[in-house]
Amino acid sequence: MRKIIQIVVLLLLTGSASAQQEKGIIGTDNWLNNWTDFDPKSADYGEPNEILTGNITEDKKLYKKDIYLLMGNVFVTDSVTLTIEPGTVIIGDWESQASLTIAKGATIMAEGLETDPIVFTSNRSVKKPGDWGGIILLGDAPTNKFGNGSVASMYANLDQSSYQHTNYGGENVKSNSGVLKYVRIEYAGGGKKGRGAAKFDGLLLAGVGNETVLENIMVSYCEGDSFEVMGGGVNFVKAVSYSSNSNDFKFNLGTQSRLDNSLAIRSPYATSSKGARCLDISSYDKKEQVDFTKPGTSIIAKNMTMLNMSDDLNSHIQLGLIKEAVFIGEKASLDINKSVISGFNPAVILDDKIIINQENLEKIKFVDMFFNNCNGNIFKEYNSNNEDLENWYGNRSFYNVYSKTQNSETFIDLKNRRRPDYRLRINKIIAANGKN
Q: pTM for the whole thing?
């Protein structure tokens, strides 16, 4: 009898722990261990002994035993597969603003391991955001643009023969650009110099379909967006954006994407003058370029943690260093649940073009959320009166929770630079249901 009672008590405790830690990133263990690096400046990857440059026109494999220097605009061309062994290091050249593009129809197989991730990083002795370009995957999945698209304008000194490899878009929803798994991308986001010049992203996916596997990818210290998705329908699992100067996750051009168990960590000292968000969701850049008979951008997010690492929130807000965590544009939709937004100003901004009515709000769902230590929750752009939105999302049927606890009391271990743990603390959340 005593043994049965002990088992029942253990099950109750386990169930209680799971229930309280179900918001934000989750896991029995800290899944950030081993493969991530939150302080890559101190990493010594050695000197490269092989150069990658020009177009890769035949199947190629990169090996852990070698260290590769990526120079200039490198394209993996149609029908070619680039395979990268676990533990391989690829160093992006600063002077040539190196980039790696997987063209439409080509494939990358970059399957690292938890204990042996694949690393893309900078070749500068003092590493900074934007040291090199980044990684681009192009597929033939649909977008909401008229015709197909091209990313040719992003590249500096693009060879004319490579223009054909910059196109994306088509009708293949299941387009498969390969696998990125246990991959780190550090100090990317460089690009053309001068005012108004486009920046590369850490990882840009344009017209990439839902058969592509994207798991355990970390983008850190990026000058451009950490992750940008234009059209297609990719699904991220355990994606990490850390200390990006621009957006952490940007979705546009009719993508139908998912974000599961993923993390965005912002710093008030690393952000562009235009502001940047953890989640930026839009359906277009210019209305005249898109076909509104096609589906707009639609994002489903579950178990996300969006955290601003400010140690003086009020002061940083007054200095203009902290903005909203989430922006949702006109004709875009978001269904987010069991997620955490902590330390922003405010938590969410809706495009001022969105009419606040039941039809539109049913396309923007915040359910079972934890809004913590934010200077306001959900607002319409340029409108300080958010009473209608507070009444809507504060309804108890949405199970949203509001709190004002400090980060150190909210998350398990933020100060461990080597192995931080951004899961919620159990039994340490002082919160109340209803409006804040």
A: 0.93
